[in-house]
Every structure is written in C-alpha cells, then in structure tokens.
Task: structure prediction
Amino acid sequence: MKIKRYTGTSTREVLARIRTDLGPDAVILSNREIVGGVELMAAVDFDASSLQPDAETAQDEGRPEAPAPAAAVSRPAPPAQRPAAAAGQAGAVKPSQRQQTVAAAPVLRAPAPAAGTPAARPGGEGRSTAQAGPAASAAPAAAPVWAGEIRDLRDELEELREWVRASVAQAPVGSPSAIELRLQALGLDARAAREAAAGAQDVDAALQAWLAGVDMRAEPMNEAGVYALVGATGVGKTTTIAKIAARLVLRHGTQSVALVTTDTYRIGGVEQLRIYGRILGVPVAVARDAAELRAHLQEFSDRSFVLVDTIGLSPRDARLAEHLRWLGEQGTAVRALLLLGAGMSLAVYEQAWQTYRELPLAGCILTKLDETPVFGAALQWLREHAQPLWFYTDGQRVPEDLHAPEVAKMKALLQRGPAAARADDPALRTGRDDAAPAVANSR
Result:
C-alpha cells in the first residue's frame, strides 16, 4: 500500500493533485486543517493480504496458544447495523471523525486438543472426526476473524470518499483562493488577481510573474528632447519636474537643461518653479499662450532637455482643453509624461487616460507612493494599457525621492508598503531628514 501526504491552500487543489498523482482509485485516509491550508493523507493499492496472520510462523516457533473464549473475540458490527452516511451530502461523517489507527486484527487460533478427547486418542474416533467431510474443516477458513474488520474498513473509506466528493461539489464555484485575496488586498481587482494567481505557488511568485508584464524603464529619459509633464491638479507636477531637472543636471550639467511653465493660474506656481531654477542654475521661462510656448522652445533649442510644467485642471474645465491644444500644436516635438497619483482607483486612471490620450505620451510617472498603503490598481492600469513606467516618487526631497522602477523594488513596495520597504531594503532606503537637498548645497 502506498501512502502519501499532500498539503495545499484548498481541498479542491489537493484533491486535484492526488487524482493526478495516485489516480482515481486513491482513497483519503485523513483530512485536517493546517496553517495556510489543508493536509490530506491518501493511499492507493490497498492490500488486504498484508493483514493475514502468519500461522505457519507461529507453528514453527512452537509457542502454545491458549484457547480464546468466544466472548473475548471482538467482532465489529456488520455494515448494515452501522448508521450509513448519505452519499453526496454535507452531513456525511467528516474526515476528523474517521481518523483512526489501523491495528493488526486479533488472530483466532484453534485450541490444542486436550488429553483424553477423541481427537487426542489414536484410533478410529479421531479418524472419524477427521473424515467427517471437508465442510466442517473448511468453515473456519472461509470466514477468518479479521474479514469483518477489512470489510468495515473498506466501507468507511468508501464513505469518506463520497463525503469528499460531496464537499468538493458543494464548494462555491469560482471562490477566490488565499493568493487571490491577498492580491486584491494589494489593490488589484478580482479579475487581475485571478489571472496573476493562476499557477502560482505563493503571493511572491504571483507578483514576480505579474509585474514582469509591466513595462519598467531601467534608464528613463536617456534621450534628449522636450518633455511636458501633464496630469490632474495636485498630482505633484511642479515638484516632480524639479526632481527630474535635478537628476538631469547631475548627469548632464546645467547647460543641458531648461524649464518652461504654462501654469499661470495657480497662485505661486511660477515663483515656485523659478526658485527651483535658481537652485539648480537653469533658466525658467513662462508661456501664456501657444505662441509664447513655441518661442521659448525655439529659444532653448540648444538645450538637450527642456521640461514643460503644465496646469492641472478638471477635465471639464475649458482652460484645460486650451492648454492641451497648445501642446498639440507643437506636434511630436513635445512628448508628454502622464503623472498618476498612487493609490487611486482604476476609474480615476481611466479618466486621466481619456483626457490626455490624444497627446504623444512617452511614459507615466507614479507620484506620492509615500502617501498611500497600496497602489496595485495603478500598476494594473499601466499593465493593461501597455504604458511604460518611467519613474515613481515617494517624498518631497529633490532629487532623492525620484526613483527608476524595478520589479524587485515594486514587489517590495507592494507587499510591505512604501514606508516598511524603504526601511528594510538598502536598495530602497534613502533616509529622511529636514536638511536642504544635495543639489541646493552645491550652488
């Protein structure tokens, strides 16, 4: 008999593995809950002959056996007298009630003939008893003592098999697994969580494979050009443009970068960008219409990188449509970077996509990861719309809190949260203090 132990997150999953491994004739010996799932013991190729007593060995050893009284032999009740479990019903005997140790059945041996009995005396009486016919001597062999126990054990195993089948049949169809529930807690919707969990052994493996489908640029913005940062109001466009400008200044020098802003509606918006420009040592220009924007882009044509800060307005505001028209008139000379606040819903990202999809989008930037516990919905939107992720930000510091994405980083941020991941992972930890930025100290 072959016995194996199987563990998994659900009974359905373990039963499928048992059927694949041991075949449809496998029987379930036990079923219990463990940490993180269930454990089943299954057996196949049950051999009843392994329980037969070796009478010849006992006779060879010459050990006399005392006659056992008939009342001392414990015979199990026949199956008809036991309450049978209804096949296919949830009220069948549960596996925990069927767990028992199968011990060797008691062996009933014929008592040795006493002295003075006809069988002990040589002569005709003993021979007549021996010659009484095969029926008398064959009766004990036809019904061994342990035959009832084997029959009862087989009946119980069949009941257990029927109970398991009924339990699986009554399980809700399409109920989420533990991996799916965890992925949904990270921000993915039910459909994306089900796709990500398919075939995965744990949450870490599911995220590793799923995040591989998100286009993450290891070296974003390595091509010179004009980039306009667009997005909803309050998403952090001005702070992000300062971080990107500082990154470019550190790599290419102050003579390679220029800043332009069209945000003349927000109080202090222009002055905020000019302060960043003075700190970085790069020029800042203000464009109040499409003609001024075109003139400033021509003025900074000798600069490798020109970053344009745009206004953030409601999609229903007519001024936003006017500003988008300014950018559209520049053609493909201006590439847009769409900023998405982390922690929003899929509906919010879809609305942003409908607003800015007519622009030549080069990529997306996730902002404010430090202000949200989960951001799986943002990554799901990027994956489903095949939009590349260029950067993510997780703080106000310039430029330390701007990062290029990687699968390992995003997986750590998703599973442990942005704050915990940065504290635990040296690759993500940059430290926080109230000191002035490094770029500001270099002036």
